[in-house]
Each structure stands twice: as C-alpha cells, then as structure tokens.
Amino acid sequence: MNAATSRSSLPGAQRVVVKIGSSSLTGPDGHLDLGALRGLVDVLAERVAAGGQVVLVTSGAISAGIGPLGLTTRPRDLATMQAAAMIGQSQLVARYTEAFAAHGLRVGQVLLTAEDTVRRWRYRNAQRSLDRLLALGVVPVVNENDAVTTDELKFGDNDRLAALVSHLVRADALVLLTDVDGLHDAPPSRPGARRIPYVADLAEVAGVEVTARGSALGTGGMVTKLESVRIATGAGVPAVLTSAVNARAALAGDDVGTFFAVTGRRTSARRLWIAHAAGSRGRLHLDAGAARAVLGGRASLLPAGVTRVEGTFDAGDPVELVGPDGAVLARGLVAFDAAELPPLLGRSTFDLRAELGEGYDRVVVHRDDLVLEGPTGAATASRR
Ligand SMILES: Nc1ncnc2c1ncn2[C@@H]1O[C@H](COP(=O)(O)OP(=O)(O)O)[C@@H](O)[C@H]1O
Ligand SMILES: N[C@@H](CCC(=O)OP(=O)(O)O)C(=O)O
C-alpha cells in the first residue's frame, strides 16, 4: 500500500484539515461544550508543536447560538438561523482563540461562502490568504459565513466545505470528526451495527444504509460525510471519519473510525470547485451537435449550439448544460448574463461579431470553465 492508501500516511501528514461537527461541540443545553472544544484544541496544538499545519473547519455557529437566544431546538427559518449563527460564531471563535492561546498559538477566522468558491478571483484570494495564514504559523478556523448566505447559494453543510478546503490548501489528509466512531454497516442506533474500518473505494460501501438526518444538532448526517469523502478521496486526499474523542488516535494512524483511501489524483482546483461548490443558477439547453461537442471534452460551448436559457444568472455564475433529452451533461461558469443570451442563441460567432461587434463573439461557456457530469451524477449529486 502506498502512503495515501493506508493509515500510515496520517502521522506524517504535513498539512491536515480537521472538521468538527456541531453535535460534537454543543452540549444538551444548546451552549458550547467547552471541554470538547478544548480537548480538540489540545490535539491540534500538539500537531502544530510537532511541526504540522492544521486547518480547522468548525461547525457549531448555529447550534452554539441556540442557548444564548433562549431557544430549545435548532431554528429552521433562515433569518433565525442567521441570527443564531451571528451569536454562535463569535462565541466559537472567542473560545478557540482562548484555547489555542493557552498553547501559544494564534487563530485566524476564515468565513467562506459558496460564492468564494466559484468566482475565479475569489477562490484564488481564499487560497492565497489561507496559505499565508499557514505560513505565518496561524491556525485557520474556517466556517461557512452563515450570517450572510441564503438558501440558494449555500454550502449548507460543512462536510463538503471541508473537502473543498482540503483541496484548496492541498492538504495531505482530511479528518472528519463527528459523534459516531466512523461509518457503520447500518445506522449506529441499530443494534448490531458494526464499524467499517477501511474503505478502499466508496463503491464498496454503496449498499450501506446511511441516513441524511444525523443528530439533533448536525446537518446532513452520514450522507454529507460520504459526499465529502468522495470529493476528497477523488481529488487525492485520504480521509478519516471518527468521533471527536478519537481525534488524537486518528491523527496518529491508530485503528479508529473509518479510513478512506484515495481513489483519484489531484485535479485543478477550479474544476473541482465548479463541480462541487455551489448550486447552479440556471440551465442552458443544447442542440445535439453542441451536446456531442461538449461531451467530447475539448470544445467550448458556442452561442450557436444553445437553444434555450432558463434561470436568472450573471456572467460568472455556475449553470447546468442540458442535452436535447433533458439530461444534465455538464456544469460550467457562464460568460454572459441570462438577459444577454436570447438574441445570441443559434447564431454563429462570425455573424455575431459582424453584427454586434467584438465582445459578442465570445464563447458561452469556455472549456476551462466546464466540468462534465460523471456517470453517477458526480458534478451535481452533492447538492442536498
Ligand atoms: N451507516 C452509518 N454509519 C454511521 N453513522 C450514521 C450512519 N447512518 C447515519 N448515521 C448518523 O450520522 C450522524 C452524524 O451526522 P451529523 O449529526 O450531521 O454530525 P455532525 O454534527 O458531526 O456533522 C450520526 O450521529 C449517525 O447517527
Ligand atoms: N455552518 C453551520 C454548520 C452546518 C453543518 O454542516 O453542521 P454539521 O453537520 O454539524 O457539520 C454552523 O456553523 O452552524
């Protein structure tokens, strides 16, 4: 086994992304569980002291706002969720700052939105600032910017965000910490459910029953964790899924939780993020010729091959490319606003340039901004 296919890669992994879920950080009273938070920080600080770099992706903003707001359950409406997140996020970062300071370490808060991941300059910017933080010896503490995100354009779950961040920072491993010790062969509440220690390829566990509803505080249950694992391992980052109390053992490469071996090689960040980062803002319907050209993998999409446009999007937004039979063929970043496109459809770039001038002869989706839909719906399946 090479390093990325066995747990032996973990003790020496130089740069590790560790994600902790709300269920592991929040007590039954809806307040932060400081013991759990400090326990995790102790483990991460040890790693940094040993020369490693750690990026912490932490959930818990919304759940940590429940108690202070006088609520008893996780809010469901967007405005209250945002309010809870605003209260909870500042508490979270204050507590992490204190806990890491006890080890002589500084933290930097990084709040990302899905928009940061689909706009070229924004994700390059995120990459640069995270690299710089790490180079300065600071521990980035990452969460989704729940205070400003809306339902339409939201990661929604930090499992997927953590996988994208692990690719963004070129991590050597991703550790997902939750309230169960790994993937089980049935939901762990079921008597007799057993831990699966090693997964060489997610296809092996395709038949395992997993639920999307997790704990009362978490989001997405095991389903989003496996999506996260699919993104990470498919892009060359091995992953471990275990309970928060096993964080130290997991990083040491001990036999806890589930280890997921890499299945693919690192792809360009841009393509991975187009495929997985955000929901689409609209759809472009293609004629048969354009569908064939796009599926061939080397062509950009020209106005001549687009028959219809759905949705309201701006240039740079992610859209789905749909074939004549209605199947989604690819996702891509569109180069025009939705309102600009109708008069251009079906027209050759030569005509468009002659009639409308330079600027209107550009491609609708450049091939570098285009990711084909995988056989299992890989480009879009990660939306809940
Ligand atoms: N096959 C399975 N193996 C392990 N856990 C599972 C499985 N199916 C569902 N789960 C549930 O997933 C939950 C973890 O998800 P979640 O509550 O979203 O956690 P977090 O807050 O850590 O993100 C566990 O509490 C467990 O009940
Ligand atoms: N950004 C949200 C996290 C949502 C989420 O994914 O929660 P979890 O399933 O506990 O990882 C928060 O901080 O509350």
TrEMBL record:
EC number(s) reported in the record: 2.7.2.11
Leader peptide range in chain numbering: none
Residues that bind ATP: 19, 178-179, 219-225
Reactions listed under catalytic activity: L-glutamate + ATP = L-glutamyl 5-phosphate + ADP
Localization terms from the record: Cytoplasm
Residues the entry annotates as binding substrate: 59, 146, 158
InterPro entries in UniProt: AceGlu_kinase-like_sf (IPR036393), Asp/Glu/Uridylate_kinase (IPR001048), G5K_ProB (IPR041739), Glu/AcGlu_kinase (IPR001057), Glu_5kinase (IPR011529), Glu_5kinase/COase_Synthase (IPR005715), PUA (IPR002478), PUA-like_sf (IPR015947)
Record key words, sorted: Amino-acid biosynthesis, ATP-binding, Cytoplasm, Kinase, Nucleotide-binding, Proline biosynthesis, Transferase
A family per Pfam: PUA
Pathway: Amino-acid biosynthesis; L-proline biosynthesis; L-glutamate 5-semialdehyde from L-glutamate: step 1/2
Domain PUA: 282-362
PANTHER family: GLUTAMATE 5-KINASE, ISOPENTENYL PHOSPHATE KINASE
NCBIfam families: proB
Family: Belongs to the glutamate 5-kinase family.
Described function: Catalyzes the transfer of a phosphate group to glutamate to form L-glutamate 5-phosphate.
Protein name, per record: Glutamate 5-kinase
Species of origin: Isoptericola hypogeus
